[in-house]
Fold this sequence. Notes:
Order of helices and strands: EEEHEEHEHHHEHEHEEHH
Distance between the termini: 31 Å
Structural class: alpha/beta
Bound molecules: adenosine-5'-diphosphate, magnesium ion
Largest sheet: 6 strands, mixed
Helix content: 25-40%
Number of domains: 1
Number of helices: 9
CATH class: Alpha Beta
CATH topology: Rossmann fold
Strand content: 25-35%
CATH architecture: 3-Layer(aba) Sandwich
CATH superfamily: P-loop containing nucleotide triphosphate hydrolases
Amino acid sequence: MIKVENLSKTFGKNEVLKNISTSINTGEVVSIIGPSGSGKSTLLRCINLLEKPTKGRVLVYDQDITDPKTNINKVREQIGMVFQHFHLFPHMTVLDNLTYAPMKVKGESRQVAEKKARELLSRVGLTEKENAYPNNLSGGQKQRVAIARALAMEPKLMLFDEPTSALDPEMVKEVLNVMKDLAQSGMTMAIVTHEMGFAKEVADRVLFLDDGVLLEEGKPEEFFNSPRTSRAKDFLEKVL
Ligand code: ADP
Ligand code: MG
């Protein structure tokens, strides 16, 4: 579904991604882990062109999104993104947060959009919150709304950038459980996370980034039990 070819990204003189090549297959769950500042968010953001690669290509279904001829908005409709800090629309109810883009971007009728939104709210356990405003929700509830809102666009791929890092500990699990259900439903997912237990359990593949370099890539059991590089060993000793 996604092919990353020799991707480099430079901010000023700072090369934060160095010649990264990898791919994400349909139905696959890929966890991206690594130290702070290693380029995880930048890599994720290059996949939907929130950051423009300096070198290399990103292909989404064989379409080069760095090609100026590609309609990036059409590509982005297929890619949902969930951020650490939720980014909900604060002046809209939960239901309106979910129906806004499907109506505005996809031209869905309110009736269709609301029906789908209610199904999604039920899926993330927030049926009773449809008329609430984001400020009146807990962090875990906000993040579940953010996931439901992304799903309302019926994406083919979901990108998560540290979705539980801003949450109080008791709310981490409710969000991870929603993500686990999503993974089990066959959604293709790329997840930047510091939740190693989750990565171990749910990911099909782990990417380890260090200083902009894709140092290791493999099955979670191999990576967590026998990392090949000393950088990965050091990292895992600190976080496990
Ligand atoms: P991570 O998500 O792994 O913590 P990031 O991808 O956020 O890492 O950042 C990688 C490096 O790129 C860091 O050194 C960061 O300061 C730098 N960086 C990220 N975004 C920008 C930006 N918009 N402008 C300049 N430097 C940036
Ligand atoms: Mg980051």
